[in-house]
Write a structure and sequence with these properties.
The complex is a heterodimer of chains A (331) and B (244).
Chain A lengths: L5 H7 L5 E7 L2 E5 L19 H10 L8 E5 L3 E5 L3 E7 L4 E3 L2 E3 L4 E4 L4 E4 L7 E6 L33 E3 L13 E2 L11 E8 L8 H9 L2 E7 L3 E5 L13 E2 L4 E3 L7 E3 L6 E2 L3 E5 L1 H7 L7 E7 L1 H17 L3 E2 L2
Parallel strand pairs in A: 13-21
Antiparallel strand pairs in A: 1-4, 1-11, 2-3, 3-10, 4-9, 5-8, 5-10, 6-7, 6-9, 12-22, 13-20, 14-15, 14-21, 15-18, 16-19, 17-18, 17-20
Chain B lengths: L2 E4 L2 E7 L2 E6 L11 H17 L4 E6 L3 E6 L6 H12 L12 E8 L7 H8 L3 H10 L2 E6 L6 E4 L14 E4 L3 E5 L2 E4 L4 E3 L2 E5 L20 E6 L2 H6 L10
Parallel strand pairs in B: 6-14
Antiparallel strand pairs in B: 1-2, 2-3, 3-5, 4-5, 6-13, 7-8, 7-14, 8-11, 9-12, 10-11, 10-13
Helix pairs in contact in B: 3-4
The chains are: A alpha+beta (331), B alpha+beta (244).
């Protein structure tokens, strides 16, 4: 598709004030909660790879949960504020500084016009979320601001952030309710690990995998290969075989575990293709997909089978915990 | 977890918030592409769109299946399963509507179709015969998905049907015309993919700035028309370095 050039894009936002990108880092993407209802055009969901950390960033800024934020992978993002605003950073433990002074993650704080925000590289986990009170004011495409680079859709120009991009946001004033500085209690902050367990519902073509193949799959340890991105994670380990090589291409849900002919599982994530023809043994539940997206090459995963009812319970318990956790006002 | 709705529709789990409907002529798993099954999928899509609102997030209709993604805050899989069962029992075979005929230019060659030789060898045919067979068929647009504007076309002549690559390629160029089993398609943008590439099409399969955004829609008929390299460049085609 034809892409708006960066210069055309900066013109569109030339008048706006907000945060200016002084260093884009490895991969920084504009994301809201994701693009839904556009499967008929073949557009995938996009959205935050670690949705829990994303939602926390917005809650810390007293935002609507779907507000537009930045997903930073690995680190290196540097911004300069043009307006007074309130921000919060959540997710992988990237060293965060404001004008060179270390700041804690998982809390919101005031940033003044002229301040420099900088994120170093994370020793653990992969992704961080930077939200601003009121959300970044980005025009949605196909109903969402979520950036999917492969589709050249969303964000500022369908691509990752580059130096000099302006991310418009509203200025906060003295009487503003958004000035409230909040933190997530430490014991509620997720921990990121090099090993995760992926709860998986058997589904799709699972009947095409024998009981022995299923046992191998659920009892083996898999390592994340060098191909891991927002589209999917290719794993390496004991190969498993389906009794069919391909199927009629069909819709792929978030977390689906595809088994190509080489037997090495691929877990499909936010930027996955919407349709495909490799057999699938099951699907990883959403909260574990988020954990997987915080892993990188060499990290280890295991699959654990659960029923659809257990998956349903886990979803609602997780949601309940999120909604019932109170933020602390620390200022 | 498999539920039979009627002779032609079976319901399976897909994921935490997704169910799969499989369509067939006889209640068995379908590996065959038929226009009548495809019409049934379209009929079910319309029924579901009419009868659900907030419970359904999105649908992906395909050749003989439909992925139903639902909102876990509105409905659970038990209730949705029951509702779909009641709703789709009334689904009956409908006559197969004829769509528009769209012609797509195709630059078939060894330089634009890195898998042509392999398909020819596998099929015990010459490269020219493979090209002729691919062009001879009139295809139906069975599904759109995988990537924006990716139209699944069927059915490829049995003689040149070819399994997907064992390990998908990380980069398939924009415009690549490819075969997987008895399906064929044009990659609308550069992406990873495991289909066998036989040529390049210079036409944009997806452009958000044009109306309509895609040259084809589900139900249309498509024919490929061979063009030479010069014509390919004239129509805006580009040759990029390919991963073998």
């Amino acid at each position: 598709m034809s892409k708006l050039t960066s210069s055309a894009r900066s013109e569109e936002y030339a008048q706006a004030l907000g945060l200016i990108v002084t260093n884009a880092g490895v991969l920084s993407l504009i994301q809201d909660a994701g693009r839904y209802g556009a499967f008929n055009l073949g557009l995938t969901n996009g959205g935050p790879a670690d949705s829990l950390a994303f939602y926390w960033a917005n809650r810390l800024c007293s935002n609507e949960l779907n507000s537009t934020a930045i997903e930073i992978s690995l680190g290196g993002l540097e911004l300069t504020a043009q307006v007074d605003c309130v921000i919060a950073v959540t997710g992988a433990p990237m060293p965060l500084t404001l004008n060179g002074q270390p700041k804690a993650l998982w809390r919101s704080f005031l940033v003044k016009a002229g301040d420099a925000i900088s994120l170093g590289f994370t020793p653990l986990g992969v992704r961080c979320y930077l939200a601003v009170a009121g959300g970044f004011d980005i025009k949605p495409s196909f109903g969402s601001t979520a950036t999917v680079c492969r589709e050249s859709v969303g964000g500022l120009n369908g691509d990752k952030l580059v130096k000099k991009d302006v991310l418009p946001c509203q200025a906060v004033s003295k009487a503003d309710y958004r000035l409230k500085q909040l933190m997530l209690p430490e014991h509620e902050q997720p921990e990121y690990a090099n090993e995760v367990k992926l709860h998986t519902v058997l589904s799709y073509q699972h009947a095409h995998f024998s009981n022995i193949e299923k046992r191998v799959f659920f009892s083996s340890e898999y390592q994340i290969s060098k191909h891991w991105d927002r589209m999917g994670y290719r794993l390496q380990g004991r190969a498993i075989k389906a009794d069919v090589a391909g199927i009629l291409s069909e819709g792929i849900c978030y977390g689906a575990v595809q088994i190509p002919a080489d037997g090495q599982p691929i877990v499909l994530l936010n930027d996955r293709q919407t349709i495909g023809g490799y057999p699938k043994i099951g699907a990883v539940i959403s909260q574990d997909c988020a954990k997987l997206s915080q892993c990188r090459q060499g990290d280890k995963v295991r699959f654990e089978p659960i029923s659809m009812s257990q998956a349903n319970n886990m979803f609602h318990l997780n949601l309940r915990r999120f909604t019932q956790t109170q933020l602390i006002s620390y200022a | 977890m498999s539920t039979r709705i009627n002779d032609g529709i079976r319901l399976e789990v897909a994921g935490e918030n997704a169910l799969m409907l499989y369509f067939s002529d006889d209640g068995q798993e379908s590996l065959v592409i038929t226009p009548s099954i495809s019409s049934n999928v379209q009929q079910a899509t319309q029924l579901i769109r009419q009868h659900f609102s907030v419970e359904i997030i999105d649908l992906i209709p395909s050749y003989a299946s439909m992925l139903v993604v639902f909102n876990l805050l509105e409905i659970d899989h038990h209730h949705l399963r029951n509702k779909l069962k009641t709703l789709l029992k009334q689904c009956v075979s409908v006559s197969n509507k004829q769509g528009r005929l769209i012609e797509l230019p195709a630059y078939y060659s060894l330089e634009s179709g890195m898998d042509l030789q392999r398909i020819a060898k596998h099929a015990k045919l010459t490269v020219t015969q493979v090209i002729t067979l691919h062009q001879a068929q009139e295809y139906r647009v069975y599904a759109i998905g995988f990537a924006p504007g990716f139209a699944y076309l069927g059915e490829v002549d049995e003689r040149i049907a070819m399994e997907r690559l064992t390990t998908p390629r990380l980069k398939v160029p924009k415009g690549a015309i490819a075969i997987a089993d008895r399906q064929t398609a044009v990659y609308p943008a550069q992406s990873p993919g495991g289909w066998n590439i036989i040529g390049l099409c210079p036409i944009d399969m997806f452009n958000a700035q044009t109306e309509p955004m895609m040259p084809v829609e589900v139900g249309d008929r498509v024919k490929f028309v061979a063009i030479d390299k010069l014509k390919f460049f004239e129509l805006g085609g580009k040759l990029t370095e390919m991963e073998s």
